[in-house]
């Protein structure tokens, strides 16, 4: 008689499924992710995978949720370990860069690939699950806007804060993309030194306006 799997065993199998699915999305694209293809890749049967996830969309959304959870945890820890508002912003920026460079597959799925996003799931059976990813991503944005508002001495809802958020996000996304593609190495032999200077220039732009 089979015994019920323990929680840690279930977590390990789910992790294995998510890792395999992420690899397929990165290497072959979202459309290539099917339960049969995934089962073949990770050495399971498709019916067994259905014991853990109902379909590819639940698997995919769970990957994105896990990615944003990791990013939020990294950025929150960076802020907690830094002193002063500018030190916190710098630590948060560095945490974002590290995440993008050290976990490129997650970063690619979360921010670069034309994979389904929250708005694509509105009105579908997956809306509630996708809303978890949306909430965490908005918590990250709120974390950044709160710090920027303190540094600039303006309300968090001020349009200037939104502009600064888009400014730094665009900059960081470009930095991560150029680093991960190795293209930045054609321009400079020391990407880290250049990135440090760009971050400092952004920090210098966050001057109190009131």
Structure description:
The structure is a single chain. The chain has 210 residues and is an all-alpha fold. The protein has 2 domains: 1-53, Homeodomain-like (Arc Repressor Mutant, subunit A); 63-205, Tetracycline Repressor, domain 2, CATH 1.10.357.10. The protein has helices at residues 7-28, 35-42, 46-49, 56-80, 85-102, 104-112, 118-121, 127-152, 159-180, 191-205. Helix 5 crosses helix 6 (104-112) and helix 5 runs parallel beside helix 9 (159-180). The longest helix has 26 residues, at 127-152. The mean pLDDT is 93.
Order of helices and strands: HHHHHHHHHH
Structure classification: mainly alpha
Average pLDDT works out at 93
The biggest beta sheet is recorded as: none
Q: What best-fitting shape do the alpha-carbon axes yield?
A: globular
CATH topology of the largest domain: Tetracycline Repressor, domain 2
The percent range for helix content is over 70%
Number of strands: 0
Write down the CATH class of the largest domain.
Answer: Mainly Alpha
**Domains (count):** 2
Could you name the ranges where pLDDT drops below 50 across 5 or more consecutive residues? none
Strand % is under 5%
Separation, N- and C-terminal Cα atoms: 71 Å
